[in-house]
């Protein structure tokens, strides 16, 4: 039996009990979409809301097992306290959550629609119910997604909120629970800033955050220890993707603690670039190659910009301009690969790989052999023959996995030892501030 059917049965049983005892039944929050009402992605036309369809389906089901949300949670290396919730949390009225979201002063997007929150929880359902990872929620704001995750069975949610305005309500919710929610005044996107010394929240070092939460390092090949959920800020979306990919390849910042998975909304234009194929010389770029090489990238859902509450100086959805299609925010799962690191690709030389990819794809119509010969004259042809690649192949036609194989071959080649990229690597390392 699915986790969703079980949860709905619990709701139905509690409702019948309340009616028989004279108590007031739990009221469902309105499911009507405040934004993009005619969007076909979730509900539309004369279709019934998803939650109502599930309740009707449930009424015809028999012999279903009761799922007790107050069951003692399996331990997470001794870090997770037991649950003690008997009632589902009310996500609140959409109008009230919109009002709370609009109190934010900076440019930011919020999830206030219960349908979108439920959709995200659906994609994490097996992970939530089986307690596979700690959930980091970036900038929860009014807490609609926070409550939905908890209602879906999340054993441990860490709400990283950067705005002080939203902290009191989130902390009040935390105090009502028994350890499955922890609220931290922290901005995930400001973790590990360049430089050293003391700093004030919401900026923070990853080491301090993880120590505070009691999360320890695990081997790279272990299961995902943390899942990060949120919306990338459009102000520095691409810069943040670069910062994260540098950290991933060197196992710094959050990736020091294992294969941290990202489940994030990113702009459609950036998703298109991240997943572009070789030969698409306009979209196929170094950042996308590095992410494809490092992670399994899965598109979970597309949602129109208008479905999110946006706070901006000029009002409206504040959609960034683009030469390419950019009508949606894309919910994308990026899971680091277990086999990313090998004997030839390690955290010690991964910065060299990153710089190699950036230099090769700076000119995507250039011949790869010419780039290789510029690093080690006369070696390009030998390497391409070894990898069975055409001698006249463009750099923009090489697959991510082929770039990885090329790098590993160069690492084993005596002709490339001590002969390339070191000045660029040194400069890049000095400009990357992770703790």
Automatic annotation (TrEMBL):
Residues of the Ribosomal RNA adenine methylase transferase N-terminal domain: 116-315
Enzyme class label: transferase
Record-linked PROSITE patterns: SAM_RNA_A_N6_MT
SMART domains linked to this entry: rADc
E.C. number: 2.1.1.-
Keyword NAD recorded: no
Keywords for this protein: Methyltransferase, Mitochondrion, RNA-binding, rRNA processing, S-adenosyl-L-methionine, Transcription, Transcription regulation, Transferase, Transit peptide
Single biological process term from Gene Ontology: transcription initiation at mitochondrial promoter
Record SUPFAM superfamilies: S-adenosyl-L-methionine-dependent methyltransferases (SSF53335)
Keyword S-adenosyl-L-methionine: yes
Lineage top rank: taxon: Eukaryota
GO CC aspect terms: mitochondrial matrix
Family, as annotated: Belongs to the class I-like SAM-binding methyltransferase superfamily. rRNA adenine N(6)-methyltransferase family.
Subunit structure of this chain's protein: Homodimer. Component of the mitochondrial transcription initiation complex, composed at least of TFB2M, TFAM and POLRMT. In this complex TFAM recruits POLRMT to the promoter whereas TFB2M induces structural changes in POLRMT to enable promoter opening and trapping of the DNA non-template strand. Interacts with mitochondrial RNA polymerase POLRMT. Interacts with TFAM.
Protein name: rRNA adenine N(6)-methyltransferase
């Amino acid at each position: 039996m699915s986790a969703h059917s079980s949860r709905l049965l619990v709701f139905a049983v509690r409702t019948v009990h309340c009616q028989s005892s004279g108590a007031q039944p739990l009221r469902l929050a309105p499911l009507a979409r405040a934004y993009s009402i005619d969007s076909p992605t979730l509900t539309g036309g004369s279709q019934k809301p998803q939650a109502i369809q599930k309740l009707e389906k449930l009424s015809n089901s028999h012999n279903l097992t009761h799922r007790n949300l107050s069951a003692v949670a399996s331990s997470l290396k001794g870090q997770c306290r037991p649950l003690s919730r008997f009632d589902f949390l009310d996500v609140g009225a959409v109008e009230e959550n919109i009002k709370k979201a609009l109190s934010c002063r900076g440019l930011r997007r919020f999830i206030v629609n219960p349908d979108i929150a439920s959709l995200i929880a659906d994609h994490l359902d097996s992970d939530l119910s089986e307690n596979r990872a700690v959930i980091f929620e970036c900038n929860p704001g009014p807490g609609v997604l926070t409550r939905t995750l908890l209602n879906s069975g999340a054993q441990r949610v860490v709400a990283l909120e950067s705005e002080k305005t939203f902290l009191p309500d989130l902390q009040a919710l935390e105090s009502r629970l028994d350890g499955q929610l922890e609220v931290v005044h922290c901005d995930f996107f400001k973790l590990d800033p360049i430089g050293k010394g003391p700093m004030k929240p919401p900026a923070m070092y990853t080491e301090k955050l993880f120590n505070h939460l009691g999360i320890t390092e695990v081997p790279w090949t272990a299961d995902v220890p943390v899942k990060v959920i949120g919306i990338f800020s459009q102000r520095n979306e691409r810069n943040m993707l670069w910062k994260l990919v540098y950290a991933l390849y060197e196992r710094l910042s959050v990736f020091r603690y294992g294969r941290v998975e990202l489940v994030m909304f990113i702009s459609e234009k950036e998703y298109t670039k991240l997943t572009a194929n070789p030969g698409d010389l306009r979209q196929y770029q170094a950042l996308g190659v590095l992410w494809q090489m490092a992670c399994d990238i899965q598109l979970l859902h597309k949602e129109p910009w208008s479905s999110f509450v946006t706070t901006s100086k000029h009002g409206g959805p504040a959609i960034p301009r683009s030469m390419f299609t950019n009508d949606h925010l894309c919910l994308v799962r990026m899971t680091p690969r277990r086999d990313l690191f090998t004997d030839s690709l390690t955290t010690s030389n991964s910065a060299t790989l990153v710089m190699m990819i950036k230099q090769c794809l700076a000119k995507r119509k250039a011949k790869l052999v010419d780039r290789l010969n510029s690093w080690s004259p006369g070696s390009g042809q030998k390497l391409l023959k070894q990898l069975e690649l055409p001698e006249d192949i463009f750099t923009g036609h090489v697959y991510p996995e082929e770039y990885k194989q090329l790098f590993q071959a160069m690492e084993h080649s005596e002709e490339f030892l001590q002969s390339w990229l070191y000045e660029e690597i040194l400069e890049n390392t000095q400009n990357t501030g992770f703790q």
